[in-house]
Design brief:
The complex is a heterodimer. Chain A has an eleven-stranded mixed β-sheet with strand order 3-2-1-4-5-6-8-11-9-10-7, sandwiched between helices. In chain A, strands 12-13 form a two-stranded antiparallel ribbon. Chain A has 17 helices and 13 strands. Chain A is α/β, with parallel strands linked by helices. Chain B is about 40% helix and about 30% strand. Chain B has a five-stranded mixed β-sheet with strand order 3-2-1-6-11, sandwiched between helices. Classes of the chains: A alpha/beta, B alpha+beta. At the A-B interface, helix 9, helix 12, strand 10 and helix 17 of A face strand 3, strand 4, helix 1, helix 6 and helix 7 of B. The complex binds guanosine-5'-triphosphate, adenosine-5'-triphosphate and magnesium ion (2 copies).
Chain lengths: ~450, ~400
């Protein structure tokens, strides 16, 4: 039988997270280049596109022109199928880049050929590499027409099934944030800025400088394998009344449908960043307001200090849509790496990556204490005594289980003083002591 | 004293995380939380320090973060302690009223308390708390202050919390090794109850259960008085360990399954539902039966509640609990845990709120923080007591001086 060995990787829990970011397609590359220019901090970035134009982009990101054999660096002509194939062609290189990351952001504009076609493939590689994979994407404006709208929906579905979560920014909603006469280019820049804020919000929240740290494990537990579509909004307020204002702005944000998204959310990740003048009282007031607006959902808060933000509060929110029912599969034969057909439910089978790197983030740490010979002796006696007892309850089937009791069932507590209650060693799983057979 | 605002720091060394909370008593006398710092806890099992040097590092990390947030230097802390060796019990002291007119005096009260405190404990044990419950005068119960009453015998009930001296020293050493003073050492189960309950809830009768990673502490109040405290060295780690064993997965995976798919109840509709675990290459590796997962958890949680309920029932305390059960600690996050507790205790069950302290109503109202916040609360009581005692101290001083003068 396999032994549930306690994870002994506690030497590493304070290791910083390895975060990587990948910009896919024209929009994604632009947005990522913009992110690197802003104060996002060190993280390794890659931009990829089917169009060799990105080579002229001024950025520190690594660049990769996709499918140059297929497309001769001329783009996909808007065909996602070409985008998909072009990404598959670069499998090795892409997998290499994803290696050893804890968290990977994939940024793209959906609707064209590259973003819609390549991003889902890249997301799959990222998840295969064991990283928590979050996609941040825009959806096209209405005026871009039907074909783009449709392609974006297909791309979104595929992305949802390959990434852990997709954070959406419907460009059309930006109109309500902008002057009608804003030139299209500025609109795109604005949308890039919003994506940057989304990524920065999550990233800073996980960064260790936070006052209230969101455990990476916590973030995982909210997004991993949920394959959800989340909405996000990021707002800022300055000066005297910033605490009140920042909440008002958030709730007024068209991206959250004037607060409706909050009401309906199942999980809300809140990232609050302020200058060194951010007080707990401020944090508290904001959370209080948000708490009132989120009806059912769980609020997860992370705060961080960025000295550059003196006098300013930046609030970023990622709200997941509720999962209808329980988010697990009934028949157990899905496979994450199977091709993602259309029309699958949003809430797919949760699959698990081997959390090797991430285990260091989990709450298991600490070398066990040494056991004394008396202790061990005591333990044995306890188990023998109980053995007789349990057998009476459930007959032959239990015997087999009990044979292994000494080796296995103490698991994590093997070396700590046993918890004895009324003569019973209750470190041993309750179901075993109660003689319950699982089959 | 010339200190402007007294800073009170609670340090909770938990099995999964170490948490330092900084409070400040404002000019108006109210308690404000102004900082919090956290670290993963790597050297603690079942609430007790097993690797002092790693724990030292983790404490330093948490304290550093709290200092940064509160913008202050932390010199001393109220330290929370727990562990399977800690016990609580009640003791009654007896004293015949001395005065001719049978009027009970302050001296009688001091004497009866002294008698109650005379407890025979094994030498390796150390008393952590002696909490006065109430007085009895000639057998009449529930008296808060008997001074001035008439009677022939006065008795007092006290609640005593004690633990093994050596095992209590380990966390104390770890803290002192960081050049931090210890203001007081507090049983963390008591601290959690202070964080959650207001006077009304203590009056009406409440149970607080703090289920953390390594231990579960509980405290019972009724008629405004602490009636009972206890601890079982079982917690969330046991749930994970049970799952690791029962589902045959590594412990880290079990912890993850617990948090993502756990529940305190086995709902009938999940029959036959499974989870697929895949390996690095996305290949399905293992199928987990969701019903088994929840059954394992449910049985463990049910057992923990049963153990507590039986103990309280034997002490005949459950009838006095009218307000209900308040759950806290990380395990309070487990879905349906309220329902399960309700089935066991037959009392209203809710998730405790630390609302009662200003400065953190929502932000820090998370079950993991209850103990640390309670420590600050404990500290604020102590600080206020000290501040109030000061004039008293002065007056006795003047009395002594007067006496000296009279003599001369
Ligand atoms: N935020 C942002 N969105 C953009 C930008 N350019 C285009 N978009 C949006 O993103 C969608 C996809 O456009 P691109 O990223 O240029 O397309 P692509 O993915 O590179 O695909 P092809 O060029 O067709 O291979 C468009 O429909 C627009 O809605 C940009 O610079 N910033
Ligand atoms: N959503 C959840 N579902 C199940 N268990 C959870 C959840 N969230 C937290 N936990 C568990 O709560 C425990 C941590 O709680 P907490 O922080 O109160 O413990 P602690 O104070 O470190 O430990 P202790 O007080 O026992 O020494 C862990 O075992 C963790 O797995
Ligand atoms: Mg605790
Ligand atoms: Mg505890």
């Amino acid at each position: 039988m396999q032994e549930p060995t306690p994870q002994n990787d506690h030497s590493a829990p304070l290791q910083p997270l390895t975060v990587k970011i990948i910009g896919v397609g024209g929009a994604g590359s632009n947005a990522v280049a913009g992110m690197l220019r802003s104060d996002l901090g060190v993280l390794s970035a890659l931009i990829l596109h089917t169009n060799s134009r990105i080579l002229t982009l001024e950025t520190n990101a690594q660049k990769l022109v996709l499918g140059s054999r297929r497309t001769h660096g001329m783009g996909t002509g808007g065909d996602p199928e070409i985008g998909r194939a072009a990404a598959e062609d670069q499998e090795e290189m892409l997998r290499q880049f994803c290696k050893d990351a804890d968290l990977i952001f994939i940024v793209a504009g959906l609707g064209g050929g590259t973003g819609s076609g390549s991003a889902p493939v890249v997301a799959r590689f990222a998840k295969d590499a064991g990283a928590l994979t979050l996609a941040v994407v825009t959806l096209p404006f209405d005026f871009e027409g039907n074909r783009r709208a449709q392609q974006s929906q297909v791309g979104l579905l595929k992305l949802k099934s390959s990434a852990d979560a997709v954070i959406c920014l419907p460009n059309q909603k930006l109109f309500r944030l902008l002057d009608e006469n804003t030139p299209v280019n500025d609109t795109f820049n604005f949308s890039n800025d919003l994506m940057t804020q989304g990524v920065r919000g999550i990233w800073q929240m996980l960064n260790r400088t936070g006052l209230i740290n969101v455990d990476f494990a916590h973030l995982r537990s909210v997004v991993q394998d949920r394959h959800t579509e989340s909405m996000f909004a990021s707002v800022e307020a300055r000066g005297e009344g910033r605490v009140r204002e920042v909440v008002e702005r958030l709730v007024a944000s068209p991206l959250l449908d004037e607060g409706r998204v909050l009401e309906e959310a199942s999980d809300v990740l809140v990232s609050l960043i302020g200058g060194s003048d951010l007080t707990l009282a401020d944090v508290n007031k904001i959370m209080d307001q948000l708490n009132r607006r989120v009806c059912e959902g769980q609020l997860i808060l992370g705060t961080a200090i960025d000295p550059a933000l003196h006098g300013t509060i930046r609030l970023t929110i990622i709200a997941s849509r509720p999962t209808p029912g329980i988010s697990h599969n009934q028949p157990a034969n899905h496979s994450r790496s199977s091709t993602m057909e259309m029309g699958k439910s949003d809430f797919e089978a949760p699959f698990f990556d081997e959390p090797t790197v991430l285990l260091s983030q989990s709450r298991f740490k600490g070398p066990p204490p040494e056991t004394t010979p008396e202790n061990t002796e005591f333990l044995f006696q306890q188990q023998n005594a109980r053995g007789g007892h349990a057998r009476k309850k459930s007959g032959v089937k239990m015997k087999q289980e009990l044979l292994n009791l000494e080796i296995i069932s103490k698991g994590r507590f093997e070396k700590s003083e046993p918890t004895i209650h009324h003569g019973e060693d209750i470190d041993v799983p309750t179901y075993i002591r109660r003689g319950i057979v699982l089959n | 004293m010339f200190e402007t605002t007294p800073i009170i720091v609670g340090l909770d060394i938990g099995t999964s995380k170490i948490c330092a909370v900084v409070g400040e008593i404002s000019d108006s006398g109210s308690l404000n939380i102004v900082g919090v710092g956290q670290s993963k806890s790597r050297g603690v099992r079942k609430g007790e320090v097993v690797d002092a040097s790693i724990v030292g590092e983790d404490i330093r990390h948490a304290i550093g973060e709290a200092e940064q947030m509160a913008d202050t230097e932390i010199r001393s802390v109220y330290l929370g302690v727990t562990g399977g060796h800690i016990r609580g019990f009640n003791n009654r002291g007896f004293h015949p009223v001395a005065s001719q007119d049978r009027e009970i005096t302050e001296d009688d009260v001091q004497d009866v308390i002294k008698n109650a405190r005379a407890i025979n404990l094994p030498t390796e044990n150390k008393v952590l708390h002696i909490i006065r419950q109430h007085f009895l005068v000639d057998g009449q119960d529930g008296i808060v202050n008997p001074v001035g009453m008439l009677g022939t015998r006065v008795e007092v009930d006290i609640h005593v919390v004690h633990g093994n001296f050596n095992r209590l020293q380990t966390p104390i050493h770890a803290v002192k090794g960081l050049q931090l003073e210890i203001e007081d050492v507090v049983f963390s189960g008591l601290a959690s109850s202070l964080a959650l309950l207001n006077n009304h809830q203590k009056e009406m009768g409440s149970i607080v259960i703090d289920m953390g990673a390594g231990t579960t502490e509980y405290a019972v109040y009724s008629n405004g008085i602490i009636k009972h405290t206890g601890i079982i060295a079982v917690g969330g780690d046991h749930l994970s360990n049970d799952l690791a064993y029962g589902l045959k997965v590594p412990l880290g995976r079990a912890e993850q399954l617990k948090i993502e798919h756990g529940s305190a109840l086995v709902e009938p509709e999940i029959r036959g539902h499974t989870l697929t675990l895949t390996n690095d290459h996305g290949i399905a590796e293992k199928t987990i039966n969701l019903e088994h997962l929840r059954r394992i958890m449910s049985l463990r949680l049910d057992e923990i509640f049963q153990l507590i309920a039986n103990e309280l029932d034997q002490a005949d305390l459950l009838n006095d609990v009218r307000e209900g059960v308040f759950l806290t600690g990380g395990c309070a996050r487990i879905p349906n845990i309220q329902k399960l507790a309700n089935q066991v205790f037959h009392l209203p069950v809710s998730i405790g709120k630390t609302n009662s302290i200003s400065g953190l109503k929502s932000a820090l109202d998370q079950p993991e923080f209850a103990a640390a916040i309670g420590l600050v609360r404990f500290g604020s009581f102590e600080t206020r007591k000290r501040l109030q005692e000061k004039p008293g101290f002065q007056s006795t001083l003047t009395q002594t001086i007067k006496q000296i003068f009279r003599r001369s």
